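Researcher: I've got a protein sequence and the SMILES for 2-acetamido-2-deoxy-beta-D-glucopyranose. Could you write out the 3D structure of the bound complex as structure tokens? I'd like something to compare against our soaking experiments later this week.
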Amino acid sequence: MLIFWSSLLLFTLRCNSPVLCLDPPLPTTTTTNRGEPDPFTFPEKQSTVLPDPSAFFSPTLTSSPLPTNSFFQNFVIENGDQHEYIHPYIIKSANSTLSLSYPSIFSNASFTQQIFTPDINISVSNNPNPNQTHAVSSFNDLSVTLDLQPGLRFFLVRGSPYLTCQVLQTVPISISTIHKIRTVVPNTSKTKYKINLDNGQTWLLYSSSPISLTREKSTISSENFRGVIRIALLTNADSKLESVLDRFSSCYPVSGHAEFPEPFTVQYKWKTRGLGDLLMLANPLHLRLLDDSSIKVVDGFKYKSIDGELVGVVGSSWVLKSDPVSVTWYSIKGVEKESYPQIVDALVEDVKGLDSSNLSTNSSYFYGKLVARAARLALIAEEVDHVDVIPKVKRYLKDTIEPWLDGTFDGNSFLYDKSWGGLITKQGSNDTTADFGFGIYNDHHFHIGFYLYGIAVLAKIDPVWGRKYRPQAYALMEDIMTLDKGQDSMYTRLRCFDLWKLHSWAAGLTEFENGRNQESTSEAVNAYYSAALMGLAYGDTHLVALGSLLTSMEIHAAQAWWHVKEDDTLYGADFTRENRVVGILWAIKRDSVLWFAPAEFKEIRLGIQVLPLLPITEILFSDLEYAKQLVDWALPSMKREGVAEGWKGFVYALEGLYEKEKALKNIRSLTGHDDGNSLSNMLWWIFSR
Ligand SMILES: *[C@@H]1O[C@H](CO)[C@@H](O)[C@H](O)[C@H]1NC(C)=O
Ligand SMILES: *[C@@H]1O[C@H](CO)[C@@H](O)[C@H](O)[C@H]1NC(C)=O
Ligand SMILES: *[C@@H]1O[C@H](CO)[C@@H](O)[C@H](O)[C@H]1NC(C)=O
Ligand SMILES: *[C@@H]1O[C@H](CO)[C@@H](O)[C@H](O)[C@H]1NC(C)=O
Ligand SMILES: *[C@@H]1O[C@H](CO)[C@@H](O)[C@H](O)[C@H]1NC(C)=O
Ligand SMILES: *[C@@H]1O[C@H](CO)[C@@H](O)[C@H](O)[C@H]1NC(C)=O
Ligand SMILES: *[C@@H]1O[C@H](CO)[C@@H](O)[C@H](O)[C@H]1NC(C)=O
Ligand SMILES: *[C@@H]1O[C@H](CO)[C@@H](O)[C@H](O)[C@H]1NC(C)=O
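Model: Sure. Here is the predicted complex with 2-acetamido-2-deoxy-beta-D-glucopyranose in place.
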């Protein structure tokens, strides 16, 4: 059907129905972002605070963008000797030795944490040069390969019950432990050993060809060996488990990656060597999303983990399907007509207050929140049919967004860092703490998400503007959502999103003993949701699909690991009793504190998992019983002195999910709102419940 372009624009501006408001694709020559050179790059700048990646990445890798928030980040920053979790083991590599730990879990009411203990150390015996650091010789979505001199190559593939080491040169191997060794028993062909430790652990060692092991005190040494060694923990003495490990011991994964074959689908594929089928472990979210027909779960084959029980799954490819989410500009069910006047009153006031000449911040984060706050006003205006205010919002959005895209903003700007391949800010280019560490790749999706929201809305209400700034808009988006890899890419693949955990990490290039972390799942959801909206505005179906997929996965993961329901058994009983939501989620820790508030400030902990309040918030908090539990848990802490109005607002917003009138009264009593929120937005939310 051919419709004259400008009549479609008018239609979009005035349309209030989320279902009918299909945006026309922009008449641009590029309708997809894939496979086309990006014509725009933010100005290049050499950071004075970023580490040099060539210390750990092999030279073949450093000419392409490198990951900055990955599950193995500790291996490539500082001394590279801090441990990382690859499920079910924690791995540490230091001084030419790789340590393997099957972690115990400590849990109390304040936090839950896995404890690293070097249960098994592997190195080359009598290594003449034991102080060398490892090299990352390859990495992928689900795997990283570490090379330790001389000649040990570890295929660290996430979710493998076996640690796999290829001994590339003929050398003697040393296996040591901090525990006492009770017994070391080979089978008759000497391709399997059972190693019993005095901490109760039994480890199985498999080798691709016979290996001679002798034991002295706490060290087991081999004669010269070349080939493949695999080590796995036998989680209990059940002979059935041992036979499962035996059976799958000869097929080993060397790498794993993810593909996106269909909407709302992630497919894992592992490259394997050896004979037989591949045995891997699935976390509870995998199990929920696994497409039944694609895999076979091994009954009773289990490992414990802070993320829940890991269970054995056979197959070198898995298909994961998420619940589809429909990314919409407006509230899902629409706003009650009778409430329009109330919302319009608030809207007129909020729009009156917009003034781009006196912004109180240069911070890429807080500035982005102001942009997104204003953009909401435009969409609310469309939804309640009060389009008179839109020109002023449009002006404000242009005035605030353009300086960042043009690089004409004195206070700060986006710049391109070639060393890792990504955006930094001017303030972050010489200060690791500026912009919450944006310059060291912290929080990128949070900050960028707010700009993408503003850009999406502005491109929607002003397609001519959208067309003009499309290259800059895409550069911002691609910093966090590039799929391509290799030298032709400007940015690393999916900077924040972890394809195994199926949520994002914020942490960037800082060494942390607990691995990467993320605090605000709602801001992560906002990032991908906003990118999908931008895809709608630009008629880019690929971007809509990718944004929607990541939105949906991030929501699943938030519900699985951050949202703690009263009767959940995932975490320890004390932790579950005291915490309705995780504050900071780390690779191997669940904290009740926030980066910026103690555990007792529960309304803040709730708020940081809700903001920004958007149509998608309804899907993130679709479990109303849980929402009520969370609010009931947070309310008592609001009796404290000095609780900020902004944080109260998010508690009342969730209350509005199940007790609308009371929540409305509470919202009406507020004297202020979060800097990214407004009374208009709060009323829009309540009246669209
Ligand atoms: C590596 O060895 C050095 C010196 O022998 C020691 O100081 C350092 O603590 C070791 N590193 C680790 C992580 O064990
Ligand atoms: C939890 O354990 C840590 C470390 O021992 C301790 O500092 C903290 O006070 C404990 N929390 C509670 C609520 O007991
Ligand atoms: C390893 O480093 C330590 C100190 O960091 C040093 O004392 C030792 O001599 C080094 N060993 C070798 C073989 O270089
Ligand atoms: C094993 O390696 C760890 C470092 O991960 C080290 O602290 C420990 O001393 C080593 N133990 C043995 C017995 O080699
Ligand atoms: C020893 O164990 C390995 C691994 O399970 C197996 O392939 C091999 O056949 C066993 N050898 C004998 C003689 O049973
Ligand atoms: C900016 O100006 C507007 C309108 O004059 C005013 O309402 C608002 O409070 C001012 N904001 C700041 C941060 O000064
Ligand atoms: C923003 O940066 C500009 C230019 O560096 C400076 O003049 C201004 O004071 C800064 N504003 C704030 C709120 O920090
Ligand atoms: C970063 O550079 C700016 C401008 O040159 C300077 O004012 C500021 O003090 C520097 N910050 C740090 C942390 O070095």
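Model: The longest helix spans residues 541-562. Residues 1-35 have pLDDT under 50 and may be disordered.
Researcher: Great, I'll pass this along to the crystallography team.
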